[in-house]
Amino acid sequence: LLPKEVTIIEVGPRDGLQNEKNFVPTEVKEQFIHNLSDAGIQEMEITSFVSPKWVPQMQDAATIVSSNFNIRRKLVLTPNRKGVDRALELGCDAVAVFVGVSNSFNKKNINKTTMESMEELKPIIAELKKKNIFVRACISTAFYCPFEGKVSEEATIKLCQEFVTAGVDELSVADTIGMAVPTESFALFSKLKENLQATLLTAHFHDTRKMALANIFAALQAGIDRFDTSAGGLGGCPFAPGATGNVATEDVVYMLERIGIQTGIELDKLVNAIDVIAPMIARPIESGYYQLAKKS
Ligand code: HMG
Ligand code: MG
């Protein structure tokens, strides 16, 4: 049985832009976020507090979070104490932390082993919950790692469980390098759904091998009703070799609405949001929906 409604968590302003070499002016990012919220998006990662040496594109995070946006939560991504403190000082009410199941990936991404990251994050999560901050944990390399290959379901479920014990509100479980296939999506999300009933479960698919829509449909069948997507299909982690864009928000919204699942998002306004960011991106926007919208 498929859900009647789905929540889209837009990650374009964060995952979408972090891998772009050319700096996108802050005002353009802000306009992009405004247009996305005008299209009906309520949940969004608006930026990340990470080292500007590692990810120069996100160096304007403080300015971005200081603007007012019409969204449910001011959600930012960050891996450490420094970023969390900065986010709270600037009035964020939601934080997304991130850890890879695979050690080699976590080392490349955050310069720590998975266990070191967890030791750092557990007390931070407890403090955030005391302050009533919404906490989301992004689980990278939940299916495959660019360095270690296949990641076991057991390892992913174990890390998810650790985060739930630590008190997070949401888990965003990611196919970082877009290598999962629908049988794997269905199997993992069915098990997570069964074992972690009290936590919001979200699926985060990259579309590297064009499997993302199929994987989303499989996750829907496993009972998942929250998906991370990126307008224009932008995105990818700079520290995961070969990783390309997130699944395009417009393609996901088109599929869901055609199936009869409500998203609350208006496609024509989503196209307006992509129009703002497209000229800043070094490659053409490849999503089927956007290309067709531009031809007609
Ligand atoms: P490091 O070099 O080991 O640590 O980096 P450090 O503590 O020596 O920090 C280096 C510099 O960064 C210092 O500045 C710090 O102050 C500063 P300096 O003293 O040299 O001038 N710094 C910070 N600045 C701003 N905000 C912060 C912060 N922390 C330190 N929060 C570190 C360790 C974690 C900082 C680095 O590895 C890093 O920034 N990594 C982030 C990598 C990243 O952003 N990856 C992409 C996001 S994750 C992703 O895309 C996956 C996801 O989409 C799911 C999926 O698809 O899998 C979520
Ligand atoms: Mg990602």
Q: Which tags fit this structure?
A:
8-stranded parallel barrel, two-stranded antiparallel sheet, 12 helices, about 45% helix, binds magnesium ion, about 300 residues, binds 3-hydroxy-3-methylglutaryl-coenzyme A, 10 strands, alpha/beta
Structure notes:
The protein is of the alpha/beta class and 296 residues long. Helices cover 43% and strands 16% of the residues. The protein has twelve helices and ten strands. The chain has an eight-stranded parallel barrel, surrounded by eight helices. Helix 2 (26-38) packs antiparallel against helix 11, helix 7 (153-166) packs parallel to helix 8 and helix 8 packs parallel to helix 9 (212-221). It starts with 6 loop residues before the first strand and ends with a helix. The mean pLDDT is 97. 3-hydroxy-3-methylglutaryl-coenzyme A binds at residues 15, 18, 48-51, 53-55, 78-80, 82-83, 98, 109-111, 138, 140, 174, 176, 204, 206, 237, 239. Belongs to the HMG-CoA lyase family.
Category from helices, strands and their pairing: alpha/beta
Could you give a short account of the major beta sheet? 8 strands, parallel, barrel
Ligands in the model, by name, code or SMILES, are: 3-hydroxy-3-methylglutaryl-coenzyme A, magnesium ion
Q: Order of SSEs, N→C?
A: EHHEHEHEHHEEEHEHEHEHHH
Termini gap:
35 Å
What low-confidence regions span 5 or more consecutive residues with pLDDT below 50? none
How many E-type strands? 10
Beta-strand share of residues: 15-25%
Oligomer: single chain
Mean pLDDT: 97
Q: Portion of residues in helices?
A: 40-55%
- Rg on CA atoms, Å: 17 Å
Protein name: Hydroxymethylglutaryl-CoA lyase
GO molecular function, one term: hydroxymethylglutaryl-CoA lyase activity
Domain Pyruvate carboxyltransferase: 6-271
Keywords: Lyase, Metal-binding
